[in-house]
Amino acid sequence: MLRKAALLLSGNAAAALLTLARNLVVARLIPVADYGIAATLAVAMAVVEMVSALGLQQQIVQAREGEDERFQAALQGFQVLRGLAAGAALLALAAPLAGFLMIPEATWGYMALAAVPVLNALQHFDIHRLTRTHRFGPMILTGIVPAALALAAVWPLARWLGDWRVMLVSLLLQAGLATLVSHLVAERRFRLVLDRAEMGRSFRFGWPLLLNGALLFLVFNGDRLVVGRVLGMETLAVFAMGVTLTLTPTLVMANSVQNLFLPRLSAVDRTTPEGAARFGRLAVTAQQAVLAMGIALVAGTALIGGPVVHALLGPKYAGLLPLLTLMAVAQALRVARAAPAIVALATGETTNALVANIARALALGPAAVAAVTTGDLRLVLAVAVAGEALAYLVALWRAARFLPPGAPGVLWPGLASLALLAAALAAAPPGPAPAAPWVWALLPGLLVLAAATMRELRALLRPARHP
Q1: Each residue of 151-200: pLDDT tens digit?
Q2: Counting C-beta atoms within 10 Å of the first and last residue's C-beta, which end of the chain has fewer, N or C?
Q3: What angle in degrees, to the nearest 10, is found between the helix axes of 273-313 and 324-336?
Q4: How far apart are CA 253 and CA 341, in angstroms?
Q5: Which DSSP symbol is given to 348?
Q6: Is 160 exposed, middle or buried (0-12, 13-18, 19+ CB in 10 A)?
Q7: Are 443 and 303 in contact (CB under 8 A)?
């Protein structure tokens, strides 16, 4: 178990770090305002991808007939239709989005991005099917190889183009390569089947995920849209870079936990007392895993985030330094929501994340008011933290019926994690200087305390002893 967890986490982390490195290199090589426009390309992609997500990749893992070749072909056929619809939607949204952000010169770039959801939809589902038997190599390669080549292309693209178009070409290149690699590592022949019955079943499975995608767009990008519209591209560049730096490890954590726990939870027979007890233990362990990852992110950001960002990005992103810890806390609370959603998804329930994101979206209005009336990004982020905390509590409440009675394995780690988040917010330095000496003792001490409460996680990661 420890070896598989390490492989999965390191594979996801490598792909994410390569993408993060790409973003950092682009930010260093082009003007700040151009990076703001480049950041809106990600917003444009999210508009389409998140509001058209039906969870087909999760369905092939969760469904009992996930190994059936025709079922896989039907999911792939539906995925291609979804990708074509997403591409058409992005074409239609290009001009309105550019107008809203007051960057009409980027309209053609948004239109070119319409190729990305089509390319993504042509990926081979074998990379997801194989995770049912904990074979993660093909999925990891599909993430790492395209990200590495897209990173390698940045410098010559920057010499040639020198502006936000560097990011556009890199995104198109990475999407195309990911599709190619997914076919090269697949075991089965790629087939498409258009089956109305399976499409209806997939839509019934995925409609909450579709609505959740629309809310996810607001949650992930609502703040960025407000900042870009109200405060301009340079401020958006700083804000978006901070979100990228803290969101990237969060997505690695959430994806790794889902890939590791969803097949195991889905395989448990909950109809027997022993199966229900095992399901409860795995659910508690998944929650402890995301809490551990989230508080590690916050502690690391509070301790060394300022000096690291200053070294990587230089003085032109100095405005990011006072915001980093608040951003990390928001992302830690966001990743904590992944476990309840995974637990519910393993039972076939796809509404947990939807309801939690409804709660999170309630904070967008106050955040917009804060941006318009004060222009203070710290206040905008404080509202976001409050929204993430509310969403986490809602997600946990809805998943509570799948947890053991009382769930001390969630309560005590949650309280210890809360103490660390509060200490990080109180102690984090606002600039590039390292944290005060007493912080170096306090935050690691709280990390140790939190780890001491996570008995189930320690047991799962403990190497098996062989006689």
Answers
A1: 999 999 999 998 989 999 998 999 999 999 999 998 888 988 887 777 77
A2: C
A3: 160
A4: 14
A5: T
A6: exposed
A7: yes
Nearest CA among 243, 252, 235 for reference residue 13: 252
- Tokens representing 90 are 């992005």
Q: pTM, whole model, 2 decimals? A: 0.69
Place of tokens 């997600």: 395
> Could you tell me how far CA 276 lies from the centroid of its own chain?
29
Tokens coding 336: 């904590």
N- to C-terminal Cα separation, the chain? 17
Please count the other Cβ atoms lying within 10 Å of the Cβ belonging to residue 25.
17
Tokens of 309: 């960002």
Q: In whole angstroms, what is the distance from residue 340 CA to residue 347 CA?
A: 11
Q: For residue 345, which phi and psi values (nearest 5 degrees)?
A: -60, -35
Judge whether 163 and 30 are in contact, CB under 8 Å. yes
Residues ≥6 apart with Cβ < 8 Å to 201: none
Ramachandran region, residue 465 (left: φ > 0; alpha: ψ -120 to 50; beta: rest): beta
Per residue in 106-161, pLDDT (tens digit) is 899 889 988 988 898 899 988 888 877 778 788 888 888 999 999 999 999 999 99
